[in-house]
Every structure is written in C-alpha cells, then in structure tokens.
Design a protein that fits this description.
The complex is a heterodimer of chains A (about 170) and B (about 400). Chain A is mainly alpha-helical. Chain A has six helices and no strands. In chain A, α1 runs antiparallel to α2 and α2 runs antiparallel to α3. The radius of gyration of chain A is 22 Å and the shape is globular. Chain B is globular and about 70 Å long. Chain B has about 400 residues and is an all-alpha fold. Helices cover about 65% and strands about 0% of the residues of chain B. Chain B has two domains: about 60 residues, no CATH class; about 300 residues, no CATH class. In chain B, α6 runs antiparallel to α8 and α12 runs antiparallel to α14. Classes of the chains: A mainly alpha (about 170), B mainly alpha (about 400). Chains A and B meet through α2 and α3 of A and α4, α5 and α6 of B.
C-alpha cells in the first residue's frame, strides 16, 4: 500500500517536472525542472529495489548531464536564463506524432506479450548480482565500452585543442 | 506502513539531525578559536553559556558564542536583491543543506540505539552505500550554482561558476581514491568496509591506501570549498562568491550545510581509510566505537582548520591543473598499483577466495612476509617517483622574471 502511494507521488512529480522542463521559457528553470524529473525517476528505481541504478541515475543524470547543461548555458550569452523571444511552435503536429511513435516503440516489447505473463522468477537487482553479471558474461562488452568512451574523451580533447600553430623557434611563450 | 517501521526510521534519523548540528555549533567556535591562535589573536572569549548561573561572569572560553551567533542570524533582516530570482534565491540554501544532511545516514556509526532497529532502515547497510554517498554529495554543486545564479550579482555568478568547475574536477580523484578501498574489501557496503578494518587493519596503513587517503583528503577539501580551495567564496577576490547576497538565516543555512558536508566527507574518509569505529578498547566496550568515530572525524576537521590557518589560496589556473594533471593521473596509477599488489599477494589464490570476506585480509593471511615488505617498499617508491615526476610536469612554465630597468 505504501509503495502504491509512493509510486503515485513520484510519478506525479516526474510528470510535472518533465512538463515544466519543456514548457518553461527560462532555460535555467527548465534545467532544474529536468533535474527534479531525474530525481523522481531515481526514486522510482528505488521503489523497484534497483538501488544501484537509482544511485547511477543521480550520479550520471543530475551530477553529470544536468551540470553539463548548466555549463553550456553559462558559456552562452543568455546567462540570465529568460529572454523575451518566443519559441516558434511550427511543426508541433509532426513533433507530437514522432513523440507518440517513440513512446509506442518503447512500449512495444510490453505490448507484444499483452496479457503480462506471471513473473515466475523474481529478478535479483542487487549490486552483487550486477557485479557478477558485469564481470562474467559481459566483461568484453564492458571493456569495449570503456575503450570507446576513452576514445571519445581523447577525441573531444583533441577537437577542443584545435589546430594549434607550430611555435616559432625561440619565441617567448 | 507499520508503526514499528516509522519508529525505526525516526530512531535512525532524528539523532543524526540533532547531533551533527550541535557539533557544528561547537566546530564554529573551535575554528574561530584555533584560527585566532594561529594568527596570534585571542578569538571569541566574552560570551558565556546562558542559563548557567554565572553565564556572564565566567565566559568558559567563549563557548556561548555559537548560540549568540545563531540568535543573531535568526533576527537579522532577510534581504533579497530586487532583480534576484526569488524562488531560487530561497531554495538554494535549503538545497545546500539537504544533501549534506542526507549523506550522514551512510556513515556506519554504531550508535547504541540503532542496534535494536531493523537492518532495512540502516542506510549504511545498503549494498551501494558508497556510490550513493558520492551521488548525493554531488548535488551540493547544484545548490552553489543556484545561489550564484539566483542572486543576479556578477560576483555571485563568478563564484557559482568557479564552484561547478572545481567540484566537477575534484570529484574524479575523490571517487577514484575510494575505488582502492572497494578493491581491498570487495564491497560497497559502508558497514562492511568499516568492519574489514577492525583492530588495526586500517587501510591507511597500506602504501596504496595511504596515497589514496592523501588524494582523498585533498579532493575532499576542494569538494567542501575549504581553504586552500575556497575559490568559490574567495573573500578578497569575489566578496564571498555565491553567498554575497545572502543574509540572516539563509546565510546561516549555507554555513550549516558547509560544515555538515565537512562532517560527512570526513566521516567517509574515516570509514574508508581510518578504520571506522575501530580503536583501542572497542572489543570490551562496544559504545567506544562511536566515540572513536567522532574523535577521528574531529581529528580530520582539526587538520582542515589548521590548513585554513596555514595555506594561502590557490589561483584558478593552479586549481584546474592540480586536479587534472596531478591528482587524476596519480589516483589512476594508484589503482594500478593496488590491483597488481593484490594480484601479487594472491599468487594464484584469487579464485579460491571467499566472496563474503574482505579480500585484503584473506590475502594477508597466507602471504610471505618478504613479499609483503618488498611490495610495500616498491609501491611507496613508485608512488613517490610518480608524484615527483607529475609535479615537475605540471609545474607552470614560468621563466624567471627579467628586470630590464631595475638594478
């Protein structure tokens, strides 16, 4: 019962947060609303006993993605957040269609086996089980992903450095 | 939700909310007093403890000062700049306090009253407690940014931006040095990490643990905006930075949040490296572990105060270079050293280890003392050489100044 109540409260916060994030003209307000959405999502993961995913949700989405968004806004000239310009709303129809399509595709696996089969074996979402899975069957995947991310990081640094002019001999720095 | 569960939750949380703010009041007094002595002043010495008969006459080293400060803060005018974002200006101090308070429950302090409550209420028994700790302390950055941005003040904004850059950079060495401990224990559970160090098996007494502790402590100073990393609130450059526009109780909340964060991160350092509640006499008297835990926290806080009185503030360019070019490579190297050392100690026994027991303890049991000694000297040597080399590499290339017209 208390889980039901918690679920509905968290869901309401998540939906409200997402709506505010989309609707707010003020960029910074929008980012913080998005973070509220992420936090509510993390709470929902906790309700599913997936504590690791909940922690990572906070760590990655609020701690990294959210901060990155704020960083990006700080580097633009619209630091104040709100500007009077109105967003153009052309193409809202197709946008709605695409959003609905994505939603349906995401739900497809669930829809296909509609009368949901009874769960016979409860999944064990504990950190321990996750660690075993990561180290035993998925260790190659993990390593490849790590390599890919490292490559992306180095690539980003290289791109950010730009074409630096070769230094002239003996010139002071 | 049963009544028992509610009672257990209250028993687990309310004492934390009472104890640590009380300690905060005492710490502000300690800090002012210690800084004053370092700077050859006397510090607060007039305010006595009220409600005692001789409150005014015997000032008890000015111990009443925190209470007087608190009352003063409560009665001060709440000033909000005209252009400020009122909602965020109000929310920022609250957001600064919540994560700091929240992570206190991940510290495995064995208070006598939590022995009777069920395990599911104890947050530090969570399998991912350490990850949760880092995830939630990271939220502090947001509060600082929120405050800086909502004040509509260029100094505040500068402070907020500095805070974000600093906290994001120093979080990486912080987490990477905690990884060492997780490797040595084989668990992310805070209680298990503390138990693995029972007796004198503290992880600070291993070479890689010592290096990790030093990196962790430096990064923790930066995470909590303590001097010499207090650039976000540099008084002499940007006038207290993100809380320039805060007065009265909102300012007090920031202050409280900052100190609670200090307690929390020191508590994590104690859990990870300094043996948690381990100490002499704990086996005979279990409640001593609480005392030891708090004593160790206060030892770290005392070092923080001492550093604040001793070191000058870093420059912004030094700050970033230090995190990315010195601490980060060193902590990655440290992970490699710890990994290879554990592997060498194991000598092919890794597969036969009991998962439920701390890894390092099992490895040390059957290890050859000569191998252990060699490993320690080797690890310390590598770390020392690496730290020296990195220091040389990351030193800013500044030529000695040439004086054209002097002399």
């Amino acid at each position: 019962m208390s889980e039901q109540i918690a679920f509905w409260i968290l869901s309401a916060i998540a939906v409200l947060g997402a709506l505010v994030a989309v609707r707010k003209r003020n960029l910074i307000h929008g980012v913080f609303a998005l973070m509220i959405f992420f936090a509510a999502l993390s709470g929902l993961f906790l309700l599913l006993l997936a504590e690791f995913i909940a922690a990572v949700q906070i760590l990655v989405y609020i701690g990294a993605v959210g901060i990155l968004l704020l960083f990006a806004i700080m580097l633009t000239e619209r630091v104040a957040g709100d500007d009077g310009r109105r967003m153009t709303s052309r193409g809202w129809f197709w946008g709605l269609v695409v959003a609905a399509a994505v939603f349906v595709v995401l739900l497809l696996p669930a829809i296909q086996q509609w009368p949901t089969p009874e769960v016979t074996q409860a999944p064990d979402p504990s950190v321990e089980e996750l660690g075993h899975k990561l180290m035993n069957p998925y260790v190659m995947t993990l390593e490849v992903l790590a390599l890919l991310l490292t490559a992306a990081l180095i690539g980003a640094v290289t791109a950010a450095q730009g074409m630096r002019k070769p230094k002239e001999e003996g010139s002071p720095e | 939700m049963s009544l028992e569960l509610i009672r257990d939750i209250l028993v687990a949380t309310v004492p934390l909310l009472l104890i640590f703010p009380t300690l905060f009041a005492f710490t502000t007094w300690l800090e002012r007093k210690a800084l004053a002595r370092i700077q050859n002043r006397i510090g607060p010495n007039k305010v006595g403890v009220p409600l005692t008969r001789y409150g005014g006459r015997f000032s008890l080293f000015g111990l009443g000062q925190p209470m007087a400060d608190g009352i003063k803060m409560l009665f001060k005018e709440n000033i909000v700049p005209r252009d400020a974002d009122r909602l965020f200006h109000l929310l920022a101090p609250i957001l600064a306090l919540i994560p700091a308070m929240l992570v206190l429950c991940f510290l495995p302090i064995d208070f006598p009253w939590i022995n009777n409550i069920q395990d599911s209420v104890k947050a530090f028994m969570l399998d991912g407690a350490v990850i949760f700790f880092f995830a939630i302390t990271g939220l502090n950055t947001l509060a600082v940014f929120m405050a800086g941005w909502a004040s509509r003040n260029k100094y505040s904004l500068l402070g907020g931006m500095r805070a974000i850059a600093q906290m994001v950079s120093y979080e990486i060495p912080l987490v990477l040095s905690a990884v060492i401990v997780v490797m040595m224990v084989g668990s992310l559970n805070a209680a298990e990490i503390a138990n693995a160090q029972a007796g004198w098996n503290w992880f600070i007494f291993t070479p890689w643990g010592l290096a990790a502790f030093i990196i962790f402590f430096i990064a923790a100073l930066a995470e909590t905006n303590r001097s010499p990393f207090d650039l976000p609130e540099a008084e002499s450059e940007i006038i207290a930075g993100y809380f320039t526009e805060y007065s009265g109780f909102k300012f007090a909340l920031f202050f409280l949040g900052e100190y609670i964060a200090m307690f929390a991160i020191s508590g994590l350092a104690v859990t990870l490296f300094l043996g948690g509640g381990a100490g002499p006499g704990v086996a005979a008297l279990p409640w001593l572990s609480v005392i030891w835990f708090l004593v160790k926290i206060f030892a770290l806080i005392a070092v923080m105060i001492w550093l604040r009185g001793t070191l000058p503030r870093l420059r912004v360019d030094q700050l970033m270079g230090f995190a990315w070019k010195f601490l980060l490579p060193l902590s990655i190297l440290n992970i490699f050293i710890a990994g290879s050392a554990l592997h060498l100690l194991a000598g092919g026994r890794l597969a036969g280890l009991d998962e439920k027991q701390p890894i390092l303890r099992q490895l040390m049991e059957g290890a050859n003392p000569l191998v252990v000694a060699g490993l320690w000297i080797g690890a310390l040597l590598i770390l020392y050489v690496a730290a020296n080399g990195l220091n040389q590499l990351s030193r800013a290339k500044v030529r000695p100044r040439e004086y054209k017209y002097a002399e």
